[in-house]
Write a structure and sequence with these properties.
By secondary structure, the protein is of the alpha/beta class. Among the domains are: about 80 residues, Four Helix Bundle (Hemerythrin (Met), subunit A) (Up-down Bundle); about 150 residues, Rossmann fold (3-Layer(aba) Sandwich). Helix content is about 50%, strand content about 10%. The protein is built from 14 helices and 9 strands. Helix 9 links the parallel strand 3 and strand 4. The radius of gyration is 27 Å and the shape is elongated. The termini are far apart. About 15% of the residues have low confidence. Bound molecules: guanosine-5'-diphosphate and magnesium ion. The site of guanosine-5'-diphosphate has 19 residues, from helix 8. Its EC number is 3.6.5.4.
């Protein structure tokens, strides 16, 4: 009996340890949430790592080990000069506008028909009736006073007038600095579904990281887990964590609140909050966005509300923009998909419509295809 004891003790230890592990490990295991037995916290902070698949249920230890792979972070392209670097995308999409305007203006004696043609070209490029009329008036005056001599002078004149129309003096600063010590800047991103909000938040996180800021993302589009996954993937690539709901349909305001709280606790520079754009009715939209802003401001001031607008949607997009402008207190516009349209004039129209400057433009689906907007560089891009 006594010589059995030395065997029995380690055996008992193994059995007890096994039982303890069986109790503890499933609780700490990450993965897709089944209907929870214990009430989970409303949101979780997902550390910056690639979106994972659910771990094998039979191998919790391996899953834990696999949860900490050596992640190679990407280095976003510097933000300075991005619009210049992406200029050919504008030239490609905007050249019909720039080239057509230049072609007409270079004619020897400009007739009424020529001026009508110019106006029509501007309208086709979504500049909007008011601004198009102003540009024509300005050009007519200059042609009368200065005459149109050589092509270089014509180009210079058109360039100057287009820059004036786009607004060289509008303050396009992106406000990402917290307003009180120890508080992050908070950027809320709103807009209709499919305009490019999540992509923009992802690209913007990269811009901020490239500029040396620390960032937390809030996935307040809680309709589908896929939306949060999409955002988390963007963040992971540059080492930025995402605060997300544990279940579909959770309260977006709660997620936004938790994200800002988390950002504050972590002492980060900026919190970016992505939202859903599915609400078609104005009252519902106002309710939801109002609630999100209110709960955010309990933790920190909202420093920027960006409205994302798809440049290819023209007048339709403007209509939607108007509604968001009314309910969300928009402070800046992000115009996406400018690489896919000849209607660059929408920059002018939307600024007029909302009285808010375009601050960023999306010029492609690549991770660094988001550029700070600049009137002169934009016009140069359009004129090719
Ligand atoms: N060509 C182009 N595509 C873009 C741009 N921004 C976003 N997209 C695409 O637009 C689609 C919708 O984007 P997403 O961010 O999911 O829109 P959300 O529903 O507003 O969040 C995606 O396929 C994006 O890759 C852009 O600047 N240029
Ligand atoms: Mg989205």
């Amino acid at each position: 009996m006594t010589d059995v004891l030395p065997w029995l003790i380690p055996l008992l230890v193994v059995v007890v340890l096994g039982a303890v592990a069986a109790l503890v490990v499933p609780r700490t295991r990450r993965g897709k949430q089944l209907p929870p037995v214990v009430t989970p916290p409303p949101t979780t902070v997902q550390p910056p790592r690639p979106a994972e698949t659910a771990p094998e249920p039979a191998a919790p230890d391996t899953a834990e080990a696999a949860a900490a792979p050596a992640v190679t972070l990407e280095r976003p392209a510097p933000t300075a000069g991005r619009l210049v670097r992406l200029r050919d995308r504008l030239a490609r999409s905007g050249s019909p506008l720039g080239a057509r305007l230049l072609a007409v203006l270079s004619r020897d004696h400009l007739t009424e028909d020529d001026w009508d043609e110019l106006e029509e070209t501007l309208l086709l490029a979504d500049v909007g009736a008011g601004p198009a009329g102003e540009l024509i008036d300005a050009l007519r005056t200059r042609v009368r006073v200065e005459g149109v001599s050589d092509p270089v002078a014509v180009r210079t004149m058109l360039r100057e007038e287009l820059i004036t129309l786009v607004g060289p003096d509008l303050d396009r600063t992106l406000h990402t600095q917290g307003t009180a010590p120890g508080t992050p800047g908070v950027v809320l991103v709103v807009g209709v579904n499919g305009t490019g909000k999540t992509t923009t938040v992802g690209k913007l996180a990269r811009v901020l990281v490239a500029d040396g800021d620390t960032v937390v993302l809030g996935a307040a589009d809680t309709f589908r887990a896929a939306a949060a996954d999409q955002l988390q993937t963007w963040g992971s690539r540059v080492g930025v964590p995402t605060v997300r709901a544990d279940r579909d349909g959770a309260d977006p305001a709660a997620v936004a609140f938790d994200a800002v709280k988390q950002g504050k606790a972590d002492g980060v520079d900026v919190v970016l909050v992505d939202t859903a754009g599915r609400l078609q009715n104005k009252a519902g939209l106002m309710d939801e966005l109002g609630k999100i802003s209110r709960v955010i401001t309990r933790e920190a001031a909202l420093t920027e509300v960006l409205l994302v607008l798809d440049a290819t949607t023209g007048q339709n997009g403007l209509q939607q923009a108007r509604v968001f402008g009314e309910v969300a207190g928009v402070t800046g516009i992000v115009l996406t998909k400018l690489d896919g349209t000849a209607k660059g004039g929408i920059v002018v129209a939307v600024q007029r419509e909302l009285g808010v400057p375009v601050k960023l433009v999306g010029l492609g689906e690549g991770p660094d295809d988001l550029a700070p907007f600049d009137a002169a560089q934009f016009v140069d891009g359009i004129l090719g």
